[in-house]
Amino acid sequence: MRTHSIRHFGKLFCVIFCTIFAAASGSAAIVWDLNPADQNAPVGSSSRTYTVSGFSITAYGFDNHAGIGTAHDLYYKSVMEVDGAIERGLGLVGTPNNELQVGMHFIQFDFTAMLAAGMLHGQISVGSVQAGEEFAIFGSDTLGTLGIQVGGVYGSAFDNQYVSIENFGQFHYYSVVSIADDVLPVSIRADLPPVPEMNAILPVAVLLLIVFSTNVWRKRAAKLA
Predict the structure, then answer these.
(1) For the whole model, what pTM was predicted?
(2) What is the pLDDT of residues 150-205, one digit of tens each?
(3) What is d(CA 42, CA 200) in angstroms, rounded to the nearest whole number?
(4) 144-167: b or e for each residue (b if 16 or more CB lie within 10 Å)?
(5) What is the CATH number of domain 29-191?
């Protein structure tokens, strides 16, 4: 009987402890869909702000002139898949396939507000990456300036797959660029930071839980003695 009680409170302790720890250390992902209404039409502007759960990012379309951009209107693209690659995302008006062409364009994302909120692990998903096509991510601290490449070059194996932005937070602006043929940004994702209040009370909560469990166990053990 005593052994049963010890096991019971041991399990209870583990469950409560894990619940508190998960609440303190866990983080939720925020996803910004770049074509949320699944449209196939011009955006009507060279920029578009997306707000999810109160967090905003802004996308800008540019023609590329040796790393310096001039505004180019954005386009919501949504058509059937081509050779297994998704054809739904944010492109440009009047370009072949309404997509980013090699060396000619880039779509830049302003992550300033996201970074100010302490968000972590920024990622970008790019579509329309068929065999032989590639894209890369560039970082800059100036709107309309392409900046420098961060990370590697990604081919068709990464079609519609999230790619982590290396050293995320180093820059305020990140751009998607076609390295071979044409590509189409799909979505952005980042993690909310852990709740600081929960991290602060975690040691106290664990201590109270230990004291509570110990007292209950002693009382139960005394009754069974």
Answers:
(1) 0.78
(2) 999 999 999 999 999 999 999 999 999 999 999 999 999 999 988 665 555 556 55
(3) 48
(4) bebbeebeeebbbebbbebbebee
(5) 2.60.120
